[in-house]
């Protein structure tokens, strides 16, 4: 249910939200009971928006409203409300392509920049589960299905060129969110920027080295150019373990407000980067040496399976569902054509893997030296232990970014992670 443009934008705090929901018969009936008895809890712990859980006698819902500024910073950093519209478009498309892997949409009001979704319970944010060393046996199957289907079916491999261009145009207005990515991921960590922060003083020298590392500057600039100029498929745009809610048996991807058409490796790399950061942060959460080793083994196995299963599913879709204008079948007829096309598929995936490695590195570095950090590291209470874990992650990330060609397989990535797991960095201070 989408509501039109009647009325103007206003921030809905508890009383106003209660009145608004009471005026929507379907939602009021789903909640049940009298509106005065509904519990409304503001639970937004993200960087941008208000999020409420509303519960009534019959059931619950989640309500998300965009603010006209970056919540993490305040009104000094304005942000367009239109991001809620793009998030709604992305969730709608993702629900079509990967049913059951995003929350069900119940209501959207474009003027209020407000979306109502199913309440995900007993799901938790995956990042919090990883900090607690929880294993998620369903995660690989679900996240690789989500990525393979949403990326393949919005690409030129599945779409006619005209349809693809119209789809790009539908999301082209989300450039303010793209600009945040371009600055916070690809630029700010490598220069003096007011909003940068890191675990000082221990990482002061490492932070300074990023600002002087020209190899790294060239590598990150190439990734930034690819991010800006390669509309390969519809991306979630912020696919980290804080945007995934899980149980042992279910996975839901949330918060695609950064959605736009960009390079596929950005989404895949984001998932892998956040798993690698969970791996390096794990030692900092130990209460006794070695107590989390089995979890760390599982994390690296998960990293390997995320890539291998994504690759397998993506290639299977290409072999069976290719209806797009890219690689037209008339150019690859007969046995000879099939052999050459299959070789090109493998080469395509190798290029996508290289992009994934580079973007994973970029996502790692920004979470340690940029504005918005991961609680994987932030909840390590001892700052020196935290800095050690972060420095290990950065060492791997730099290698992945400037020596991407040496990482030919996902096993090369996990092998390097194991190598750096016990490396002892020289810290500042």
3D architecture notes:
The chain has 429 residues and is α+β, with helices and mostly antiparallel strands. It is 50% helix and 12% strand. The chain contains 15 helices and 13 strands. It has helices at residues 14-22, 25-31, 83-97, 126-131, 139-152, 161-171, 175-184, 204-212, 214-229, 264-282, 293-321, 334-369, 375-378, 383-402, 410-420, and strands at 2-3, 39-42, 49-55, 60-66, 69-70, 74-78, 105-109, 114-118, 124-125, 233-235, 244-246, 251-253, 260-262. The strands form 4 sheets. A 6-stranded mixed β-sheet has the order 1-7-8-4-3-2, with helices on both faces. The protein has a 3-stranded antiparallel β-sheet with strand order 9-11-12. Strands 5-6 form a two-stranded antiparallel ribbon. A hairpin with a 4-residue loop joins strand 11 and strand 12. Helix 11 runs antiparallel to helix 15 (410-420), helix 12 (334-369) packs antiparallel against helix 14 (383-402) and helix 14 runs antiparallel to helix 15. The chain is globular.
């Amino acid at each position: 249910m989408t509501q039109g443009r009647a009325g103007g934008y206003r921030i809905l705090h508890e009383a106003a939200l209660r009145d608004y929901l009471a005026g929507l018969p379907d939602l009021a009936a789903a909640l049940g009971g009298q509106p005065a008895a509904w519990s409304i809890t503001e639970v937004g712990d993200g960087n941008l928006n208000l999020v409420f859980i509303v519960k009534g006698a019959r059931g619950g819902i989640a309500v998300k409203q965009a603010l006209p500024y970056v919540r993490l910073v305040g009104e000094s950093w304005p942000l367009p409300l239109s991001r809620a519209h793009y998030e709604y478009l992305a969730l709608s498309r993702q629900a079509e392509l990967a049913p059951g892997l995003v929350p069900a949409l119940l209501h959207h009001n474009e003027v209020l920049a407000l979306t109502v979704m199913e309440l995900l319970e007993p799901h938790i944010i995956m990042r919090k589960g990883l900090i607690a060393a929880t294993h998620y046996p369903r995660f690989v199957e679900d996240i690789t299905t989500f990525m393979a289907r949403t990326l393949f079916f919005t690409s030129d491999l599945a779409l006619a060129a005209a349809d693809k261009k119209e789809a790009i145009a539908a999301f082209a207005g989300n450039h303010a969110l793209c600009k945040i990515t371009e600055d916070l991921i690809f630029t700010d960590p490598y220069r003096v920027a007011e909003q940068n922060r890191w675990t000082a003083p221990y990482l002061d020298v490492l932070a300074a080295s990023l600002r002087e590392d020209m190899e790294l500057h060239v590598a990150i600039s190439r990734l930034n150019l690819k991010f800006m100029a390669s509309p390969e498929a519809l991306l979630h745009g912020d696919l980290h373990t804080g945007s995934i809610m899980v149980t042992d048996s279910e996975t839901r991807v949330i918060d695609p407000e950064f959605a736009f058409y960009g390079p596929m490796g950005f989404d895949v790399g984001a998932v892998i980067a956040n798993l690698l950061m969970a791996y390096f942060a794990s030692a900092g959460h130990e209460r006794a040496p070695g107590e989390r080793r089995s979890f760390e083994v599982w994390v690296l196995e998960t990293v390997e399976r995320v890539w291998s299963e994504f690759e397998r599913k993506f290639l299977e879709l290409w072999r069976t569902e290719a209806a797009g204008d890219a690689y037209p079948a008339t150019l690859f007829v007969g046995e000879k054509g099939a052999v050459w096309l299959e070789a090109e598929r493998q080469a395509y995936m190798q290029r996508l893997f290289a992009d994934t490695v580079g973007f994973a590195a970029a996502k790692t570095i920004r979470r340690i030296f940029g504005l918005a950090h991961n609680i994987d590291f932030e909840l390590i209470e001892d700052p020196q232990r935290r800095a050690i874990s972060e420095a290990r992650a950065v060492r791997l990330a730099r290698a992945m970014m400037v020596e991407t060609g040496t990482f030919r397989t996902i096993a090369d990535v996990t092998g390097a992670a194991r190598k750096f797991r016990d490396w002892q960095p020289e810290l500042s201070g």
